[in-house]
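Q: What residues go here?
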């Protein structure tokens, strides 16, 4: 193993710093496309995750033709989605109201206006509007052509 004396180590750190500054400036500078297209935009990060609200690891279909479906769903107070599961990844954003989702394995999560929903996959669940106003959400199904986004089911027995 080669040992560096303090002078050599200091020179190496100086060289590394000299190389890092241009790299950081390059990465920090907006690209011309971004600057032109999004100059007036502000960004609010809603979520960065590798799991859904029930703790399942996110997974994407690896076969078939990709197909995205976007819906706006409205549930009046007291209404429910009915028990169902998704064989494809689903992501949603609460536009208004509140929605409480219960899974077959006992996870219960309440979502309100402005919150993202990283849905469960292949796990029975039921969403219920537990609020006093209509619950509305926009949902994105990142599916596969020919594969249903929703599979209806009877309530699980406990």
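A:
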């Amino acid at each position: 193993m080669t040992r560096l004396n303090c002078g050599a180590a200091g020179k190496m750190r100086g060289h590394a710093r000299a190389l890092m500054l241009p790299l950081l400036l390059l990465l920090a500078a907006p690209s011309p496309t971004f600057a032109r297209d999004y100059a007036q935009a502000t960004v609010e990060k809603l979520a960065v995750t590798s799991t859904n609200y029930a703790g399942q690891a996110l997974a994407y279909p690896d076969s078939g033709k990709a197909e995205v479906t976007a819906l706006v769903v409205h549930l009046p107070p007291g209404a429910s989605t009915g028990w169902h599961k998704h064989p494809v990844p689903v992501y949603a954003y609460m536009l208004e109201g509140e929605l409480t989702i219960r899974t077959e394995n006992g996870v219960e999560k309440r979502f309100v206006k402005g919150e993202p929903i990283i849905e469960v996959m292949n796990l029975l669940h039921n969403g219920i509007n537990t609020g006093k106003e209509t619950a509305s959400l926009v949902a994105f199904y990142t599916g596969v052509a020919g594969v249903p986004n929703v599979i209806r089911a009877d309530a699980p027995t406990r």
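A: Context that may help when evaluating the design: The domain at 66-152 is CATH 2.60.120.10 (Jelly Rolls). Residues 6-28 form the longest helix (23 residues).
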